[in-house]
UniProtKB/TrEMBL annotation:
<dbReference type="Pfam" id="PF13649">
    <property type="entry name" value="Methyltransf_25"/>
</dbReference>
<dbReference type="GO" id="GO:0008168">
    <property type="term" value="F:methyltransferase activity"/>
</dbReference>
<dbReference type="GO" id="GO:0032259">
    <property type="term" value="P:methylation"/>
</dbReference>
<feature type="domain" description="Methyltransferase">
    <location>
        <begin position="63"/>
        <end position="152"/>
    </location>
</feature>
<dbReference type="InterPro" id="IPR029063">
    <property type="entry name" value="SAM-dependent_MTases_sf"/>
</dbReference>
<protein>
    <submittedName>
        <fullName>Class I SAM-dependent methyltransferase</fullName>
    </submittedName>
</protein>
<dbReference type="InterPro" id="IPR041698">
    <property type="entry name" value="Methyltransf_25"/>
</dbReference>
<keyword id="KW-0489">Methyltransferase</keyword>
<keyword id="KW-0808">Transferase</keyword>
């Protein structure tokens, strides 16, 4: 591996090969370093958080699973009889999904889904973060119109991380002239090799609603979870 290499894909492949303790170090510009255990990507349906279980119950028709990782959501849906295509930009993750039995795997980012249309587009594990920024969200939502079948839906989750900007006295410290506070810069490290820094979007539900309204979508709150997480459904306005 070299800087910019496939950090997550490498860790997932190692776990699948038997390295049960495979762990990614995650650095960000707003919090202390954290660990991301590869085993979490391989969780069963019973091990999934409640928001993810609710999301899977709302899926219907032909499904695209964006940022599919090790394919746990795709496999659960596939095992329940759905036609699922799993998308991930990671070459290693795609290889893992194929080995695990995901039938349809495409190596691509969320902005490059081609012309295929889906009834449900699924984005879990703070999946909308893949768009990187509010501008990226607008661009993504506009492009996604080509990939939604008539009556189609987008099921996604995100988190409100405003709580991380309160000081010890309870005052909110936000620079209104800076980049949107929900854009976090991350860098991952695995086996002493670091990938390139990348941006990830966390967006409060009311702000997501505003962007949806601007781009012609209706945004519905499906459920709320711990740590200011939520699950939402987007549909194109009539």
């Amino acid at each position: 591996m070299k800087p910019g290499a496939d950090i997550i894909g490498h860790a997932l492949q190692d776990y699948l090969a038997g390295e049960q303790a495979a762990t990614i170090q995650v650095y960000s510009d707003i919090a202390d370093p954290e660990e991301l255990i590869a085993a979490y990507f391989f969780r069963s349906a019973a091990q999934m958080p409640e928001l993810e279980k609710i999301a899977l119950r709302h899926c219907r028709g032909k499904i695209a699973d964006l940022g599919a990782g090790a394919g746990s959501h795709s496999l659960e849906l596939q095992n329940n009889g759905f036609n699922v295509t799993a998308f991930d930009i990671s070459k290693g993750a795609c290889a893992v999904m194929r080995k695990r039995g995901v039938n349809n795997v495409v190596q691509a980012d969320v902005f490059s889904l081609g012309a295929e249309q889906f009834d449900t587009i699924l984005m879990l594990m703070n999946g909308i973060g893949l768009v990187n920024s509010p501008d990226g969200l607008v661009y993504f939502l506009e492009r996604l119109k080509n990939n939604l079948a008539p009556g189609g839906q987008v099921i996604l989750d995100s988190s409100d991380i405003t709580y991380m900007y309160y000081d010890e006295e309870g005052a909110l410290n936000l620079d209104l002239n800076a980049e949107y506070h929900g854009v976090v810069t991350y860098q991952m490290e695995y086996k002493n090799k670091k990938g390139q820094p990348f941006k990830w979007l966390f967006i409060e539900f009311p702000v997501l609603q505003e962007y949806c309204e601007q781009t012609g979508y209706t945004c519905e709150l499906l459920a709320q979870g711990e740590n200011d997480q939520y699950l939402a459904k987007l549909t194109l306005q009539d």
